[in-house]
Amino acid sequence: MKLTALLGIALLLIPSLAAQKVPRRKTLVRVVDQEGKPVPGLRVQLCSSAIPGKRGEELVVGKTGPKGSLEVSLEEGRSYTAWGLLEKDPGEALAETEVLEDVVAGSPILLRMDRDHPVRFHLRVSMLQHWKAFGPLQVVAKSRTKNPFSFPLRLTSSGSCRLPVIPGKIPRIEFYDREGRPIAFWEMSARGRTKMERNLHFFSKNPKIRERLALKIVMGKPGLRELLVQDEKGKPLEGVQVFLWNNLRREWRFFGSLGSLGSYGSVGAPDWSEPPSVDRLSSLCFMGKTDAKGRISLVVPESRTHRKGGWDEGDAMSSFLPLPLVFKGGQATMTLFPAWADPPKSRFHPILKKGAPPLLRFCLKRGETLRGKLLWKGQALREGLEVSLRNSPGPGRGMEGDGELLPLVQNWLGKGGVFSFEGLREGDRFLLTGDAGPGRGRWAVFETWGGESPLQLSLAKLPLLRFHLRGPGGEPAGGTQVFLTKESEGETSPSQLLLLTGRSDQGGTWNLRLRPGSYRYFLFHPSKGWAVGRLKLPASGAHRIERSLSPFRLHSGVCLDSRGRPFNPFSFSVTFSWDKSSEDPFLRRVLAEVYPGSDQNLAQEKGRFAFRWIPLQGVAAHLHIRILVSLFTPGEWDFPLTNKEVRMKKFIYSPFDK
User: Fold this and answer.
1) Can the peptide bond before residue 40 be classed as cis, meaning omega within 30 degrees of 0?
2) What is the CATH number of domain 24-112?
3) 3-state secondary structure at position 258
4) Radius of gyration of the chain from Cα atoms?
5) What is the pLDDT of residues 453-467, one digit of tens each?
6) Common-topology check for domains 24-112 and 368-461
7) Residues of the chain whose pLDDT is less than 70?
8) What are 602-622's pLDDT values in tens digits?
9) Domain 553-653 falls under CATH 3.30.2310
């Protein structure tokens, strides 16, 4: 049975158009090991996600020859994710490559072997007996890559199976009923992924421990909910798309005696201490569309609903439905409910009737439609090119006015280079960006919505911003992250900031077409350095910026016991903490992107750790080092991050020290 797409990667807001023949290009793929030697007989897979209404998902598969290479045919205008697997027998993996994103037709592809042994997990899903009326459930594992690889799973009667080797190691598990309708998904938190990726590197070397790795997912009992979506006059809205952050409770553990070492997550209620940041609609679960009466029936695991402690009201939306929640379509404003709905301000009204499922009534305020057309030297851009919109809520919105950015919405050009996005309100600020076609690069527009007439852009007339980046030693800084925002009047909180990101090519070059104006940028390369600055883009021509990255201030150390032996990564933790972050909203937002979270363990093998500090004025932070040894009091140190480098500082722990 064909599965309903889980949230698509996008919303298509224009009619379906006839398929067109898209040119393809031959592309060379090479696979090498850690020493640079070719790897023959490896199966290479390249996946590109579907474009709704235009063309489906594409999966290109091939095997490397004696020289470790092969030639594949890729479609122009698509972005692929590449990955390879070396198998001895079907189902028995010997090695895998690292995942390579943003692969395009015509550009040579180089895949390097992963240093870790491929790991296969056992999956166990509990409480399936409560879902017999909706079963048999269909379960799919998806890689957490830009273009997800899908792996259908078959659960035994006890709800278990063994997962295949999956790119990126830790998958997303999706659940559908027998009709192919989505129910929920399971996705590990950032904290869990950080711990598991580090531990997998260690356990992949030990076959006995590797066989004990398992994922355990608790489904919970099914709960029936009915949603009624209306406009401000009480008229039902048909065709409204409903999205839920319907993530199941999560747990990771090892079987047998190692269970106490490897349990992550909670076996009780879900962890709501850190609400999910919904950056893309693809992070949520697409539950379906409302019918002619404005209604949609949903079945969700009841373990996902939760009531915030201290509330006496029984009408808190979080008691009835997983959050966040997004509506989209029919010129109704996209409404993003945050992690907790505020009953006095919400447009949510539950209707409880004995013997019937809760009826959840929502009122959506009508929005406006942004329409546009894209041209290149007077000619319309070809159909199917990607266009994306990121919206920052303006003052005219209701409960979205808490400053949270709305999720990124992707769209594609129709015939004649036209596009449309629905649900904007006056005062909303938005970032419109996309691809101008082969050889033309990308473009972006920062604007404030005021209900203007259709937006027509002649992209060839937009000024070209061109960065040429070099490292501290003068070498090209390929792979540098570029963060760009338009300077605006008045104060803007970091959560409301519209931020455009990109990455320089191998020669350290990054190009973008923009409207004239004043912009700020931040450059970050994980090993070479950083830079920050302002620029004023003229009305015509190209604006060239040559920057050399400033070096980091390296702070490194090693944790030893009283005999001088290094601790392993399971015996100590190194975490990053702010003492004083930047008061500049732009820098505050960027630093949150490039620095690790406070829950990420920076510990490395042989007791070592290293941190590259950006010496900005008015910013202070430290590393917190903690020795984790049972039966003794943990040792703890704070390692200040300063403008002066500190290399391989020794932290010696003795359990008998006071």
Assistant:
1) no
2) 2.60.40.1120
3) helix
4) 26
5) 788 999 999 999 999
6) yes
7) 1-21, 51-55, 90-91, 189-213, 249-280, 303-319, 323, 330-349, 396-404, 489-492, 495, 599, 629-634, 656-658
8) 888 889 999 999 999 889 999
9) no
- Write the DSSP assignment of 111-153 as a string of letters: EEB-SSPP---EEEEE-GGGGGGG-SPEEEEE-SSSS--EEEE
Residue type, 362: F
What region does 478 belong to: left with phi over 0, alpha with psi -120 to 50, or beta?
beta
What is the Cα–Cα distance from 418 to 406, expressed in whole angstroms? 23
Q: What pTM does this model have?
A: 0.73
Does residue 25 contact residue 434 with C-beta atoms inside 8 Å? no
How far is 173 from 602, CA to CA, in rounded Å? 27
Rounded Cα distance, 444 and 432, in Å: 6
Strand order in the sheet with 620-627: 572-580, 620-627, 636-641
Nearest partner of 420 among 54, 53, 13, 17, judged by Cα: 13
CA torsion 127→7→144→337, rounded to 10°? -80
Largest CA distance in the chain: 78
Q: Which two tokens stand for residue 5?
A: 């797409």
Q: Which DSSP state fits 382?
A: P
Closest CA to 512 of 502, 522, 520: 502
Q: Which amino acid is at 278?
A: V
CA-nearest of 22, 20, 23, 44 to 32 is 44
Domain assignments of the chain as residue spans, ordered by start: 24-112, 122-363, 368-461, 464-548, 553-653
Q: Which CATH architecture has domain 464-548?
A: Sandwich (2.60)
For the beta carbon of residue 531, count every other beta carbon within 10 angstroms.
20
* Residue 542 host element (H or E): strand 542-548
Q: Collapse the DSSP code of 461 into the 3-class scheme (helix H, G, I; strand E, B; otherwise coil) and give the result.
A: helix
Residue appearing with tokens 């932070």:
621
Number of other residues whose CB lies within 10 A of the CB of residue 255: 15
